[in-house]
Amino acid sequence: MTAVVENTELAGIFGPDSVTWRVHSDPVLVLGGMRALLLQALHPRAMAGVATHSGFRSDPWGRLRRTAEYVGVTTFGTAADAARAAARVRGVHRRLTAIDPDTGETFGIDEPDLLAWVHACEVDSFLSTARRAGARLGPAEADRYVAEQRRSAELVGLSADAVPADTAELAAYFAAIRPQLRATKDARAAARFVLVPPMPAWVRLGTPARPAWAALAGLAFALLPPWARRSYGIPPLPGNEIATTLAVRSLRLTLQLLPASAREGPALKAARARLA
User: Fold this and answer.
1) Per-residue pLDDT of the chain (276 residues; tens, 9 = 90+)
2) Is 207 helix (H, G, I), strand (E, B) or coil?
3) For residues 21 and 125, what is the distance between their CA atoms, to the nearest angstrom?
């Protein structure tokens, strides 16, 4: 019995046999993360909280790094690692407030409805991007991924019942919340920031980082659902969906050619070593 408990602790809250490990170790996860940020920004209250407290303007690369590290630790770290990372996030969020852009009301950014929104955007973005890029995830496995992600919701203080349990509930959630969503001035500014983030002069002029990032950001926009793209003022284009699917599949195939040392994050590498 002790060995089982120790193995469960070392494997983390999901474990190597989970669909979560498959999705979150996919090399196109970075695109899913960018899509999630663009989708989250369409909630006026959530965007107000980001605009008030996030370091995405002063330290965009640091914010992206910290977000990626959090997902990596909670996915591939030990159960204790995941709990500590989540406790730090909850502690920070508990102290922060923002102002509703419509009512002027002051609200806490750890409101359950906002946490559920952020959760749903991440789950939908990670899953839809992986599947569109060619990851072999059937309907049952997609449902299992959504169900597994309820453990992530519990880490940030939500009850499992507060978030969707399968893909049908996830789709119903977005259909119900869509009337509340729009691209505010802050959301449009954040979107422009994602497309053209600040880079040191030597990076902009001496490397292909700027056009490479612009291509990734453009693909992340294209992966948004049509209604979200319309909110940002992006008109539908003939053949856009097919072209996007071909582009993201080509990117995934290219990334898969890289050695594991180059395409796997430090949390996944540490997990593999720990469980070897």
Assistant:
1) 334 334 567 889 999 999 999 999 999 999 999 999 999 999 999 999 888 876 666 666 667 788 889 999 999 999 999 999 999 999 988 888 999 998 999 999 899 999 999 999 999 999 999 999 999 999 999 999 999 999 999 999 999 999 999 999 999 999 999 999 999 999 998 888 888 877 777 777 777 778 888 888 899 999 999 999 999 998 887 788 999 999 999 999 999 999 988 888 899 999 999 998
2) coil
3) 15
In angstroms, the CA 198 to CA 93 distance is 26
